[in-house]
Amino acid sequence: MKNLLGVAILAFALSLCNLGDRLKDLGKAQNGNQSTNQNSNQSNANTSAETEEPPVDSNTAAPAGTVSGGMLNDKAVSLPRPAYPPAAKAAGASGTVIVQVIVDETGKVTSATAVSGHPLLRQAAVQAAYQARFKPTMLSGKPVKVSGTISYNFIRD
User: What CATH number is given for 2-154 in this structure?
Assistant: First the structure.
């Protein structure tokens, strides 16, 4: 029970960190749009592409063009277990590894980065995350990219 609470707190803290980064990116984008609008001699090609995107919800930590899916373990169609690295076993490493992922419109993981967990376990978790598959997420009848996390628990035998 303590591990589950710890994972939930970690996931919440991670989403807050990502939210702060996302808000910084939005501020930079808005400043860029203002300077583009002030200079009438510049092309509007970049700003027109930005205005075609749906409005950004400031409560999401997902990159532009994606929706935030939170913890994705229960949403996986296939979630392979990671191999327990022999070096990690020998060192007595165990615990939870959280992997930040981007899932494309077809349900395939296109980006995976371990954001927490024992260093000897992270690569195995990332490799397993790339093998995970998800049902495509639909928004207004169209498949969309999803940003979220996958949690892997490594328990020594």
Answer: 3.30.2420.10
pLDDT above 70 covers a percentage of the chain that reads: 59
Q: How far apart are CA 70 and CA 56, in angstroms?
A: 16
Confidence of residue 27 (pLDDT cuts 50, 70, 90): low
Enclosing H/E stretch for 50? helix 45-51
Helices (H), 2-118: 2-38, 45-51, 86-91
At residue 5, φ and ψ (nearest 5 deg) are -65, -40
Query: Taking the model in full, what pTM does it have?
Result: 0.61
SS3 percent helix, strand, coil of the chain, rounded to 5, is 40, 30, 30
96-78-89 Cα angle (round to 5): 35
Tell me the sheet residues that pair with 76: 134
Domain limits, the chain: 2-154
State whether residue 77 is helix, strand or coil: strand
Highest mean pLDDT among 1-15, 33-47, 57-71, 82-96: 82-96
Burial class (CB in 10 A: 0-12, 13-18, 19+), 43: exposed
